[in-house]
Design a protein that fits this description.
This protein has 170 residues and is an alpha/beta fold. It contains 3 helices and 10 strands, in the order αβαβββββαββββ.
């Protein structure tokens, strides 16, 4: 009976010590993983939207990120994670490529206002008309533009058309 009590006492003691050791070991392992994971350096994803494929790859690799290219085309449409996000060095960054057609402001100087309106509308460009009194030019024709012809713009940008008129902004 005395031996059984001794064995039970020893077994209980050993079980408690085993549990405490396992808990302590687990905490030490968890702390080590936490310190290791958080010791990695972070970088900010650069803005490469609209850049060429080669420029984007170079910019991402320079700061320790791994670009994964998706799509076809010559320009970067977007990245995932987005520009400005804080990520760990060595992270994969998805780079979506596409074809970006740049629009140039057409030379509409001397063109009747109706034709200029149709042309800008067909290219998804907004426009605003300012009438300028001018007796020397043909009435209702474009005499100046802003931005100037040849300037690169985006779809839905607004083009200011200055139109010769016998009346002023009525």
């Amino acid at each position: 009976m005395k031996d059984l009590k001794k064995i039970m006492k020893k077994l209980t003691y050993n079980t408690i010590m085993f549990i405490l050791g396992a808990i302590s070991g687990g905490l030490i392992l968890l702390l080590s993983v936490f310190v290791f994971v958080n010791s990695s350096s972070y970088v900010i994803v650069p803005e490469v939207k609209g850049e060429s494929k080669d420029t984007a790859i170079k910019a991402l690799k320079e700061i320790g990120l791994i670009p994964l290219i998706q799509g076809i085309g010559n320009k970067v449409l977007y990245t995932e994670p987005s520009a400005g996000e804080r990520v760990k060095k060595g992270r994969h960054i998805f780079v979506q490529l596409g074809k970006i057609e740049s629009l140039k402001v057409p030379d509409l100087i001397g063109v009747p206002v109706e034709v200029a309106e149709q042309f800008l509308t067909s290219y998804n460009l907004n426009y605003k008309i300012i009438k300028i009194y001018n007796s020397d030019e043909k009435i209702e024709t474009v005499i100046d533009m802003d931005p100037k012809p040849g300037t690169i713009v985006e779809k839905r940008d607004t083009i200011l058309l200055k139109i010769s008129s016998s009346e002023v902004n009525k």
